[in-house]
Amino acid sequence: MALDLKKAFVPPPYKIKAIEPLYTLSHAERERAIQSAHYNTFLLPSSDVYMDLLTDSGTAAMSDYQWAGLMMGDEAYAGSLNFDHLEEAVRDVFGYRYIVPTHQGRGAEHILSKILIHSGDVIPGNMYFTTTKLHQELAGGTFSDVIIDEAHDSLSDHPFKGNVDLKKCEALVQKYTTQKIPYINLQACVNMAGGQPFSLENLKALREFSNRYQIKIILDATRVVENAHFIKVREKGYEAWPIVSIVREICSLTDGCFMSAKKDALVNIGGFLAMNDEYFFTEAKALVVIFEGLHTYGGLAGRDLEAMARGLYEATCDDRFVAHRIQQVEEFGKKLMQRDIPIVKPIGGHAVFIDAKRFLPHLSQDLFPAQALAAEIYVESGIRSMERGVVSSGRDKITGENIYPKLELVRLTIPRRVYTQEHFEYATQAIHEVYLRRNAIKGLQMTFEPKQLRFFQAHFQPIS
Ligand code: F0G
To answer: Tens digits of per-residue pLDDT, 237-294?
Structure first.
């Protein structure tokens, strides 16, 4: 049966073969647990969590075919057969000529930044991502946001909030010259904006711009399959295209990519850099041996490379996979909206983002409303979510001041192929309970702050 993705309800294209038991702590135990975790959901042991919506990273359920692939690991130090499979998969699905595996996305970001960025460079990007921006800064560069303004507005329902504003790019070229702009970092399904896609129309215009100025486009392909799905259902002309063709079209308009395979490639660990330029490839191979491992394993076991190769095909060769995945996220978001919970619109690809500014309007941003809300949701339900607001934004590199982003969000991130509708029904009810008593929720103060990526390890306590 041909699937009309615009109309049909998409049933799961899989069934469950193995299950993992979940335990539930009492309310009092959860109160103690969040206190011991210093009100930071990253510091909770997973055994204290009932439903883990912290991240979609490395949390997917692998298929039986991927698990079978683990037994086919060729654990040779050099020239593993599984590397050949991965190389073939990346060439087939993405179309890039060369690939360098890394242990995960940030390993690829590190190598990419070291090769392409020089001190004083400016790197335009469609909104920052935490680790990407940090690697750009560690290499001597500065991130500059060129996403369209709508992306910073949680109420705008622009269908392609991940689009790049070419006027902002042009202004950067005029200000810094092309010599200072090594590449444009184009993220698929922009994470910090709420999982929002860019359109192919926008990418084509960006390609023309970058050809004119001889600036590379590097794709953050971490969620490129989800981005391709949104193009299929929202952009005119692509309705009949298979997902894999849209992914290839996106990649063909870029000069290379890095990917955290822990998301759309359906594996628990892994990543890579891919490119067409031979010089870039040679440089990347030289660095990967220093920081990750030989260029045919990049910090991974052969079995991990195999699972990644198989995951890439699974995610792209049956359109039902991503259609069902995004439908699951969307249905959850709609359930929350029916209960008046303020969320970012349109509902994104990998997560539903609660707008903490609108949920807790009585808390100013220096009281970390999203951090406080994530802690409350945990105490109410055992559901773990993540702050994506002022804590995640960190401090200004020069002034040292807190950066107050427009978006102050709690991310409820959906692992791929893991939870069922009943889980989301439970989550909806629990978040609604928190909403009903929202006026009594107090803010937090930070009591310990790591120098970099503070959201992972910072400590907080309730204000008295
Ligand atoms: N790029 C994007 C868009 C990401 O979302 C991530 C990770 C990375 C790069 C880095 O990849 O984790 O494999 O090193 N995002 C995770 C998240 C951590 O929860 O959103 P990594």
So the answer is: 999 999 999 999 999 999 999 999 999 999 999 999 999 999 999 999 999 999 999 9
Dist. CA 154 → ligand 1 center (Å): 21
- Rounded distance from Cα 2 to ligand 1 centre (Å): 34
Q: Which amino acid is at 8?
A: A
Say if 80 falls within a structural domain. yes
Task: Residue 356: give its domain's CATH number.
Answer: 3.90.1150.10
Please say if the pLDDT value at position 1 is more than 50. Answer: no
Report the number of distinct structural domains present in the chain: 2
What pTM was estimated for this model as a whole? 0.96
Sign of CA dihedral 249, 254, 258, 260: negative
Pairing between β-strand 459-462 and β-strand 183-187 as defined by DSSP bridges: unpaired
Do 335 and 447 reside in the same domain of the chain? yes
Q: Is residue 12 part of a domain?
A: no
438 as an active site residue: the answer is: no
Residue 188: domain span: 64-317
For ligand 1, whether the C-beta of 57 sits within 6 Å is yes
- Same domain (yes/no): 324, 313: no
What number is the average pLDDT over the span 58-84? 98
Question: Is 179 within a domain?
Answer: yes
- Dihedral of the CA atoms 305, 303, 188, 93 (nearest 10)? 50
**Does residue 281 share a domain with residue 141?**
yes
Q: Is 11 within the bounds of a domain?
A: no
Predicted confidence (pLDDT) at residue 422 exceeds the cutoff of 60: yes
Ligand 1 binding pocket includes 125 (Cβ within 6 Å): no
pLDDT at 303 over 60: yes
User: What pLDDT does residue 464 have?
Assistant: 80
Residues 117 and 242 both lie in one domain: yes
CA dihedral 239→243→244→248, nearest 10 degrees, is 70
For ligand 1, atom 2: residue with the closest CA: 222
Pairing of strands 183-187, 51-52: unpaired
First to last CA, the chain: 60
Q: Are residues 45 and 127 both part of a single domain?
A: no
167 and 219: one domain? yes
383 with 332, same domain: the answer is: yes
Residue 130 annotated among the catalytic residues of the structure: yes
Residue 309 in contact with residue 274, Cβ under 8 Å? no
Which of 263, 303, 411, 416 is catalytic? The answer is: 263
Would you tell me how many other CB atoms lie within 10 Å of the CB of residue 112? 30
Same domain? For 361 and 220 the reply is no
342-361 pLDDT per residue, tens: 999 999 999 999 999 999 99
Output the CA 105–ligand 1 centroid distance in Å: 6
Which of 301, 317, 333 finishes a domain?
Answer: 317
Q: Residue 442 contacts by C-beta under 8 Å, 6 or more apart in sequence? A: 363, 367, 372, 462, 463
